[in-house]
Amino acid sequence: MALKRFSSLTPMFGASFRCKTFGQAIKTSLLSVKSYSTAAGGEDSETVAGQSVVTERRGAVVSVAINRPEVRNAVNQETARRLLEELEAFDRDPELNVAVLHGKGGNFCAGYDLKELANHTASLKLEQDVTKGPGPMGPSRLQLSKPLIAAVSGFAVAGGLELALLADLRVVEESAVMGVFCRRFGVPLIDGGTVRLPRLIGLSRALDLILTGRPIGAQEALAYGLANRVVPDGQALQAALQLAEQISCFPQQCLRADRSSAVFSCYDAPSFTQAMQYEMDHGIPVVQSEAVSGAARFTTGTGRGGKFS
User: Fold this and answer.
1) Which of 63, 75, 113, 216 is a good FRET partner for 52, with 20 to 30 A between their CA atoms?
2) pLDDT tens digit string along 30-68?
3) What is the pTM of this model?
């Protein structure tokens, strides 16, 4: 089933990726790394010159990299289009469970390419109706049906921060810097920053960042809940891929039903009762499809003592 924009999260449950242990899954996936690009017609993206977005498949995990290191991975119109294509392709692919978004060359993303904004205003097309087209940064208006993890290094600012907010989880390097740096130049947050940031960290803290544009480091981001993990410099991508592999090992229909319910409760539910009903309606089908067999595995000793491997 195809991904939908701004609707109740699409139930794309696909094929589950099973593994005996997280370690085995990681080892297996790292041995089967395959570069892939929808824009390149499925050919090895590393061999396609000038690609602004590069993807690699690692078993049931795909990494999506912004590849404009010369401008700290600032996003232009072409890059925005490619990011949208790759994340939509991920969401449609039944063989993929988790995506990792990151930037090449030491920075996550410095936002929209202001040189393009200043010099090519006539060619810039912004769809004001959020139900009819993509955001300026590309995938910011999507509601993915599967988990997305951001591996944040260097700068994740302005529109780059908004891309990081699109992710379910953010793995942040110790020296990374996040912030609404576009405050200095009168560039508004129109890729979900004013929507997602208050939901993630609360209105008071969000307004502090939005109104001042000040930088926020990894430890403060962790205290705010903006970062989910803080790792040493140079290790965000590796840690995010490992986290993605772990998430990919769980029964996927159950995981996606719970994720869908949490997102609906946060953004779309008009009342507590309707949120509870959504949870029940999407959880009940999972009991027969995954929970019964999972309970049977538990009775044989699997997972006893809180073990995850």
Assistant:
1) 216
2) 334 445 554 444 444 443 448 999 999 999 999 999 999
3) 0.83
CA pair distance 200, 166, nearest whole angstrom: 11
Q: Is 78 exposed, middle or buried (0-12, 13-18, 19+ CB in 10 A)?
A: middle
Phi and psi angles of residue 98, each rounded to the nearest 5 degrees, phi first: -140, 145
- For the chain, counts of helices (H) and of strands (E): 11, 10
- The 10s digit of each residue's pLDDT in 128-169 is 889 888 999 999 999 999 999 999 999 999 999 999 999 999
Reduced to 3 states (helix: H, G, I; strand: E, B; else coil), residue 50 is coil
CA 68-34-252 angle, 5° bins: 100
Residue 162: burial class (beta carbons within 10 Å; 0-12, 13-18, 19+): buried
Encoding tokens for residue 160?
């780059």
With vertex at residue 57, the alpha carbon angle to CA 16 and CA 12, rounded to the nearest 5 degrees, is: 35
Name which of 75, 66, 78, 53 is nearest 182 in CA terms.
Answer: 75
Structure tokens at 194: 């004013």
Residue 95 Cα distances to 23, 27, 55, 118, 189, angstroms? 20, 18, 15, 41, 34
Residue 4 pLDDT exceeds 60: no
18-22, 88-92, 268-272, 283-287: which has the minimum mean pLDDT?
A: 18-22
Separation CA 243–CA 245 (nearest Å):
5
DSSP β-bridge partners for residue 171: 151, 229
The continuous run of DSSP H or E covering 231 comes out as strand 229-231
